[in-house]
Amino acid sequence: PPKYNGGSDITMYVLESRLIGKEKFNRVTKEKLLDRKYTNDGLKEGDTYEYRVSACNIVGQGKPSFCTKPITCKDELVPPSLDLDFREKLTVRVGESFSLTGRYAGKPAPKVTWLKDELNVKEDDRTKIKTTPTTLSLAKLKSIREESGRYCVVVENSTGSRKGLCQVNVVDRPQPPV
């Protein structure tokens, strides 16, 4: 709040910013700002701004404050998180389908990679991989014994990575020796 309110209660604040190197300040707040906290969205990473604020009462807008020190925009960084819907071990019968699913998050958006026995899993007519901005899934249709193995999903961004593992066993009735 200002040192002196002009003899009337403060009704709102006006926040203004300008790109460093520009003369003119632009109003940031469109609505009535009563909080002393504000998140300025839609800025470009790497741009540098300075801000000032004015208090308003029923008579009008007061003089703006001194400018802030220059503030450079940086993208918010959040390490990846991973929440899986599957356990460490899964047993399915030959011919049955199975899917490994979960949710993930992070900033910047993590890259999702599926591995089986340390090798990249490729999509085909029986292998379906679906990734949305928040969910991930690997589905196997009509399983065969060769699809037994250690499946791993990796979500990774510039701040780190998370891994989820599942040992899948595809079983069949024993056959007589040939």
Question: Would you summarize the structure shown here?
Answer:
The protein is mostly beta strands and 178 residues long.
Write a structural description.
It is a single chain. This protein is mainly β and 178 residues long. 0% of the residues lie in helices and 48% in strands. It is built from no helices and 14 strands. The protein has strands at 12-19, 26-27, 48-57, 60-61, 71-72, 78-84, 89-93, 98-107, 111-116, 119-120, 127-131, 135-140, 149-157, 160-171. Strands 1, 2, 3, 4 and 5 form a five-stranded antiparallel sheet that branches. Strands 7-14-13-9-10 form a five-stranded mixed sheet, with no helix packed on it. A four-stranded antiparallel sheet has the order 6-8-12-11, with no helix packed on it. A hairpin with a 3-residue loop joins strand 11 (127-131) and strand 12. The chain is rod-shaped. The termini are far apart.
